[in-house]
Fold this sequence. Notes:
Blueprint: H1 17-26, H2 28-31, H3 35-50, H4 54-63, H5 68-80, H6 84-97, H7 102-114, H8 118-131, H9 136-148, H10 152-165, H11 170-182, H12 186-199, H13 204-216, H14 220-233, H15 238-250, H16 254-257
Helix pairs in contact: 1-3, 3-4, 3-5, 4-5, 5-6, 6-7, 7-8, 7-9, 8-9, 9-10, 9-11, 10-11, 11-12, 12-13, 13-14, 13-15, 14-15
Amino acid sequence: ETHDVRPSRFPRIRSQVAETAKWAQWSSRRTGECGVNAATAIAAAERAFLEGDDAASERHASVAGDLPAALRLRGLWRLRKGDSAAAVEWLVRASAGAPDDPAFMNDLGVARRLSGDAQGAADEFGRATAIDPGYAQAWHNLGLTLRALGRMEGAAGALERACEAAPDAIASWQALGMVRREADDFKGAEAAFETCVRLDPGDPTALANLGRLRWETGDLAGAETLLRQAIAIAPELLAARSTLASVLNSMGDVEGAL
């Protein structure tokens, strides 16, 4: 029904060549590499990582030694392979080397969340948003994590901030709609789901979520229309099919519900 927590995207990270060159110069005595070489190596390691070539990414990152960007990559490799515990260890080291970079905190929060430490994840996401109040991804992740912790008011507030920072982010609007619905704020949920449909009228999940809400609030005809649209786009969407059957049954169309 909504996306899970996600690491930062590379364009958002301060591990690009210019910043990495500074770190390399600061760490040159420890790494034995010049700043330019380390910066180039990190850029190559990031490209390889994005292409899914972990072996090449490892080779390039090894040139940068214990620079935060290299440590971060090693953490994200582990995260991608499903070893969230090892990812936490690497990302803790990376974050310690870049204490003012909220993207590193966001990635560490993702690793903590996937390792089962929801409160620790919420703390990391909170630190990231404190440093950068406009960091939409961290607000999104914080909202999902607070939802998992049962802190629905805080979750709604965080997701509202995510939507303010990135008004076109459908995933955040979807998550906000789910949180509001679970809190029995049906009007607020409807507004969030309607925004999803406006942003992408062809998104079957958005249509199905709004259709389900319309059914729950008594608008059976509106629910049927939205759910049929969702199923036409994604026939495999079982949740939409199940909800449509309930709608038709409520309308007395028992045969159609079968």
